[in-house]
Design goal:
This protein has two domains: 52 residues, Arc Repressor Mutant, subunit A, CATH 1.10.10; 159 residues, Tetracycline Repressor, domain 2 (Orthogonal Bundle). It is mainly α and 218 residues long. Helix 5 runs antiparallel to helix 7 and helix 6 packs across helix 7. The protein is built from ten helices and no strands. The longest helix is centred in the N-terminal third of the chain and has 26 residues. The radius of gyration is 19 Å and the shape is globular. Keywords: DNA-binding, Transcription, Transcription regulation. It comes from Deinococcus caeni. InterPro entries: Homeodomain-like_sf, HTH-type_TetR-like_transc_reg, HTH_TetR, TetR_C_44.
Amino acid sequence: MKVDRQEQEDARRDRIARAAFELFARSGLDAISAQDIARAAYVSRTNLYRYYPSKVHMLLAHFEKAVQASRDDALERLRAGANPQQVWDKVTGRMADLGVRYRHLVGAVGQAVLGAAPDAGQSGATADRAPGDGLRTALTLAALVQPVLLAMQTQGRLRPEANINMLSVLLVDAFILALLHGGHRDQREVLRDWQDRFSLLMHGALAPESTARGELKD
C-alpha cells in the first residue's frame, strides 16, 4: 500500500512537470499562471505547490528527465561498443536541437544551472532561482557528459591524468553560455559553436597522439 501511494505521488509529480513544460513550450514561462498548470495537470493550485514551489522548479524537473533519458541512451550505446565520438555527436545533436527549439526557455534553465541572479525587475516565477534544483540539474548535465569522456580516456584519446569530473562541468557551463549568448539561428550553428568551445577546452586534456591526429576537428 505504501509503495502504491509513493507511485501515485511520483506519477502526479511527473504529470505536473510534463503539463507545465507543454504549456511553457507553447507560450513561455511568463504567460503561464499556476492556475493554468493546475488545470492542465488536474490538480488543485494548493496541491501544485506541494510538489513544486515555482514554475522554474517544474521546468527543471522535466528538463532533468529529458537529460537522464539521453544519458541512459548514451550509456547503452557505449556498452554496445559504439564509438565515443559518435555517441558524443548524437548527445550534443539532441541537446542542440532542444536548445534551438525551446530557446525561449533556455534563459530560465541557464540561470538556474549557472547560479545567475535574475535580472533586476523580474518578478514571480521567472525570478525564482531554485538554487537546489539548479545544482541538481547541473549535476545531471555533467553526468550526461562524463561517460563519453571516460570512454575517450579509456581508449587513450584523453590524458590518463585528466580530471573527467572537472572537464564535464566546464563543458556544460561553456555549452549553456553558448546557448544563452550565441544568438544561434539553427542547430548547425549551435553545434559549430559547441565544437569550437569543445576543442578549446579539451586541447589540454587530449593525449599527445590525439592532438597530432586533430581528432576534434570537424
